[in-house]
Amino acid sequence: MERSSAGDPGRTLELLWRHELGERAPQRGPRKALSIDQVVDAAIALADAEGLEAVTMRRVAERLGVSTMSMYTYVPGKAELLDLMLDGIYQRMPREPLDDLPWRERVTAVAAQNRELYRHHPWALKVSTSRPPLGPGLIAKYEHELGALLGLGLDDVSVDQSLTLVLDFVQAAARSEAEAKAAQRESATTDEQWWRAHEPVLAEVFDPEEHPNAARIGAAAGAEYQGAYSPGHAYEFGLRRILDGLAALIEG
């Protein structure tokens, strides 16, 4: 798994906050043909189309029609570029006003926005952000999402922990959804078709009398989901339980 903030911290922060630092700083030498934004946009488009493993300095250069070596005049390497990519998709996230909504709807909206982020940019699920890129996109995202939990009587640390709980859940749910889609794409079969193909063999080896709970509950869940697992059901069920848990915290 890739991880953010793995590059040079000083250069990364300068690039992330380029509108405040880099573009105002005097520069020597010939004028660059591209902007950092163009480089980042090309890298994001490449990752969206072919996955994170396709993002190399050479491939991004090809997409922009420049030499590979010229890429290093914009970013020191892939580690810094990855931070710029993440912050770029954070900057573009929709931020509808939350102020007039009940708190449950505010949290639900934040969860939905992050779910859509991962659906549009599934490569972001392959990046560990335990040390997040501290750019303007991330800071604006954090500021906006904190608003979903303000004014509820929670102390500052509880607000941060509650938001982290929601975002970690959405990330896990989105990863499971991406894995389920990948399994269907690679096998060229739906979950229902896959289970039907394996059902005759399973019937020979599985004894429902020895495992009565697994047989009964598994059959009920399979009938409901039309497969062994439903990302949509898991997301909706999990989010409701998290909201119920936050309600208990708030009321307490």
Uncertain spans, ≥5 residues at pLDDT below 50? 20-26
Mean pLDDT: 90
Percent of residues in beta strands: under 5%
Number of E-state strands: 2
Order of helices and strands: EHHHHHHEHHHHH
Shape: flat
Largest sheet: 2 strands, parallel
**Could you give the order of strands across the largest sheet?**
1-2
What is the straight-line distance between the termini? Answer: 39 Å
Helix content: 55-70%
Estimated radius of gyration: 23 Å
Which structural class should the secondary elements be placed in? mainly alpha
Number of helices: 11
Please characterize this protein's 3D structure:
With about 250 residues, the protein is an all-alpha fold. Helices cover about 65% and strands about 0% of the residues. It has a two-stranded parallel sheet. It is flat. It starts with a strand and ends with a helix.
Q: What descriptors fit this protein?
A:
252 residues; mainly alpha; flat
Quick rundown:
The chain has 252 residues and is mostly helical. Helices cover 63% and strands 2% of the residues.
What's the helix and strand layout?
Layout: E1 2-3, H1 9-16, H2 36-50, H3 57-64, H4 68-71, H5 78-91, H6 103-120, E2 127-128, H7 136-146, H8 156-187, H9 191-205, H10 212-225, H11 231-251
Parallel strand pairs: 1-2
